[in-house]
Design a protein that fits this description.
351 residues, alpha/beta, four-stranded mixed sheet
Amino acid sequence: MGQYWLIRAPQRKETSNNLGKFGQVLFSSVSDCLATILARPEVDIKLIKSIWQQRDYWRDMNRSKTLEFREPKPILSLLCLPGLPSEILAMIVQVLDYPSILKLAVTSSYFWKSCRSRLFVIQASLLGSWAGEKIVCLGDYVSASDHPPGMFTEQEKRDLSRTALPYDEESDDVEEDRRYNNSLSMIASETYREIQFSQSRKRRHLSLSPSCIQRNLWPKAQSLPPDIEESLTRIKEIFYPEHRAFILRNLTTQEYVRAEGITRHPEYIHGPKIDRVGFGHVVLMRICWSSDSSGVSRRGINRGKWAGHRFEVTTVERHERSIKADEQWKDVSVQVREEIKDIWEFENGDY
């Protein structure tokens, strides 16, 4: 059948969906999603405000008539939300979840201006959620006692052994079932929260449209009004400005990889995103861990030298500001590039 792989963040009790076999995983969109979930947003408040001032979204929306308003129901009129002091409205917005804030924001220009800052704060909080977390890409052939060095404390290992899953005592090979059912791979599959590693994660706000239509906010629309869509999309891009230089940092070993160090084409670099082969590919190539090497393209990949380590994708400026006097960071871009070049050529031909 072959070995299947999933990326785990044990301390967060989170796991990716089943990513497939190794050849299907490494050079797929999974790597781009991994880079995104490791990238810390670089929030520039001044730039956000300048974009808001460059264009009046609601003025243009009224011109294009993309949004059709209905008179509020009598019960809503009694609430008198527009008449509340701005401080009270801000307190209400603070306790609402993302879908509720967005639905309120699109009802009028007043609420849009009151809600948009909170919307972008929540969006920023959703980005880079695995930055600084120990992660590993586990094959499902890993045995119970086989963990990447330094990933768990002795207490955490004991806790894992206590959460062992039941096995089929009538199986033809009880010892083999016991060996793998007690593994982190199986425990995580049964008990961790699953995160979908797909491109759709990047456009979470689009999934809100059907429910908004049902609640008569956009009776004739099939998607977000284009002006709001553009606003949210542009603001999201600001979190990862393309004109800034980003690097991948291994926080465990104090090593880093430069974007220009893993591609020959500067035009491929778009902030933390790199076309063809990027930071996610580098991490994934080095964090695989399994007791069995079946299905991997190169010997040793299943014993990744960075498995269980902590990473982040951040700007060079932030990296330089954060370096402490006693830290010695090492640039491993050339070494990493040669490794990934070998794997690429084995899987796909010319790099």
